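Researcher: Next sequence.
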Amino acid sequence: MNEILLFTAVAIAIYLFSDLLVRTIEARQGKVLQQRQLVFFAIFLVLVLLTFRILRQLLQP
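Model: Next structure:
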């Protein structure tokens, strides 16, 4: 049960960080990205896959 809460909390944090990163990229470019959803998804997917793999290795008995 604790693992589910941990993974959920990490997923929420990654979501917020990905959004912040996309907004930062847009602010530096001075315009909204044309493919904003695709950029967000790519960042989110990479971070989730890496983080969840690390968590699984750390939580193995």
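Model: The chain has one domain: 2-59. Residues 2-59 form one domain.
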